[in-house]
């Protein structure tokens, strides 16, 4: 059965954000085109929803979809006066959230993290929301560790994301977590979206479009991606970009939102995941192909970032068993 995603639409919802889960999850398919998710949009009582813009939305479902939902996504809704004043939810909304089953995965898009926090679901956890409201969030919910410098936070069952396009990153992350990098990358291509933006990337990038293409670090990033098996240093990247290390690092951060070496490590890990999922190469060969040097370094990265060994990751994604002849 497809994984059932229920998307909660409330009055004041941002229409663009409301459409993100269906757009991304409906593009996650097997090789024969079978969809891996089914998406239902619902509202309390199945009522018509007044959006943040100048139109309303008629949904087809009410809270009854929560009986079968494997994941619940709360689409972006700016916190109302009652919530900001008291840190609590209106009774009807609290009752709706109480109907979510104990093992159902819960995801908030952007400022809907306020709703999860008011429901007590984020106490003791790390979370994020739109950078402009992170200070307000932290003051209102001191039991939550708010991080304004990331695109999304994955706590296992509970996930929170930043604003706008970070919702796409979050949904693609879930596809990747559920079904692997290859299916997530294919879904991203169909959505014409970036296939991989790590959750730890900064929300706010100073110059997302370089002012001077000749001084951009984009060409160096492409150069590095073609050489992941090689021992690339920060100095190598700066030299390729014809910049000093200091200038290159500053410009790289302003364009990509993270440091050059962290970006390189993320790309190597992503490539290793793809090879584990889609090939029968032994772990030692994959470690070499991705620039980790040896299997010990690869295993350390997997345990640190994924909590699994490469072998366990391969088995979890039903990948081909490695051949001993290679």
UniProtKB/TrEMBL annotation:
Record keywords: Transcription, Transcription regulation
Domain HTH araC/xylS-type intervals: 218-316
Gene3D superfamilies for the chain: 3.40.50.880, Homeodomain-like
SMART domains in alphabetical order: HTH_ARAC (SM00342)
Coiled coil stretches, renumbered: none
InterPro entries: Class_I_gatase-like, DJ-1/PfpI, Homeodomain-like_sf, HTH_AraC, INH-QAR
GO molecular function: DNA-binding transcription factor activity; sequence-specific DNA binding
Name used for this protein in its record: Helix-turn-helix domain-containing protein
Lineage, opening ranks: Bacteria, Bacillati, Actinomycetota, Actinomycetes, Kitasatosporales
């Amino acid at each position: 059965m497809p994984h059932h995603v229920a998307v909660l639409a409330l009055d004041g919802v941002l229409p663009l954000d409301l459409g993100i889960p269906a757009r991304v999850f409906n593009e996650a398919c097997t090789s024969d085109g079978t969809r891996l998710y089914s998406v239902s949009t619902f509202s309390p009582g199945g009522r018509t929803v007044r959006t943040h813009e100048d139109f309303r939305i008629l949904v087809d479902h009410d809270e009854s979809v929560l009986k079968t939902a494997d994941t619940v996504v709360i689409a972006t809704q700016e916190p109302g006066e009652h919530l900001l004043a008291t840190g609590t939810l209106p009774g009807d909304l609290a009752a709706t959230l109480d109907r979510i089953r104990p093992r159902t995965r819960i995801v908030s898009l952007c400022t809907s993290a306020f709703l999860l926090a008011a429901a007590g679901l984020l106490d003791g956890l790390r979370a994020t929301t739109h950078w402009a409201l992170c200070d307000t969030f932290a003051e209102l919910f001191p039991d939550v560790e708010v991080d304004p410098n990331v695109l999304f936070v994955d706590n296992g069952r509970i996930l929170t994301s930043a604003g706008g396009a970070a919702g796409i990153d979050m949904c693609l992350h879930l596809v990747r977590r559920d079904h692997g990098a290859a299916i997530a990358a294919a879904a991203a291509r169909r959505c014409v979206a970036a296939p991989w933006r790590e959750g730890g990337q900064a929300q706010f990038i100073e110059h997302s479009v370089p002012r001077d293409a000749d001084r951009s670090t984009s060409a160096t990033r492409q150069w590095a991606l073609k050489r992941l098996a090689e021992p690339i240093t920060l100095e190598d990247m700066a030299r390729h970009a014809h910049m000093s290390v200091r200038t290159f690092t500053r410009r790289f951060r302003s364009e990509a939102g993270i440091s050059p070496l962290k970006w390189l490590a993320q790309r190597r890990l992503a490539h290793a995941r793809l090879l584990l999922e889609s090939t029968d190469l032994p772990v030692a060969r994959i470690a070499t192909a991705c620039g980790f040097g040896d299997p010990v370094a690869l295993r350390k990265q997997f345990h640190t970032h994924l909590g699994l060994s490469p072998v366990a990751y391969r088995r979890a994604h039903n990948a081909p068993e490695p051949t001993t002849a290679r």
